[in-house]
């Protein structure tokens, strides 16, 4: 088990590699299937339940251009797994090569504290926070389009744009009153 590093391997020509990390694997497979349908560039999708990745295939593993943590808000385990996996990433990934993808944010049974905790984590790490509808095919397609945009920039396939620049434009910010009790 080792630290995953963003620049330890050379990039492949016209190829982008994405790592989807989800502890429950509910949305991960449908999103992976939609991502590989991209025709403009070759998209390689790697799936993991958590980090660190096993050491045995490390020399054959391609360079990972974007790490996406999929967090199901109806599950406390999903958030805890993503939070625990973060320490297995090299700090270089937090320069525009990590994003958080939240599902089930519209569910009425989700505690607001859990959503606030995810927003605080994304803001603390200066990472984009995306919300996804995982129950409909249109939601999967929209999420795929947004991830492909970020992935192409993170992989260096968009001229005159860098992952760090994009992350500054899309990073999550937390309003100053998030710690204040609400009067709902």
Instruction: Provide the helix percentage.
Output: 25-40%
Strand content: 15-25%
Radius of gyration: 16 Å
Question: How many β-strand stretches?
Answer: 5
Mean pLDDT: 89
Low-confidence sequence ranges: none
Count every helix, treating DSSP H or I runs of 4 or more residues as helices.
Answer: 5
Order of helices and strands: EHEEHEHEHH
Largest sheet, spatial ordering of strands: 2-1-3-4-5
Largest sheet: 5 strands, parallel
Distance between the termini: 45 Å
Description of the molecule:
With 184 residues, this protein is an alpha/beta fold. 31% of the residues lie in helices and 17% in strands. It has helices at 28-35, 76-85, 112-124, 137-154, 163-170; strands at residues 15-21, 42-48, 66-72, 98-103, 129-132. The termini are far apart. Helix 1 crosses helix 4 (137-154).
Task: Supply the key terms.
5-stranded parallel sheet, globular, alpha/beta
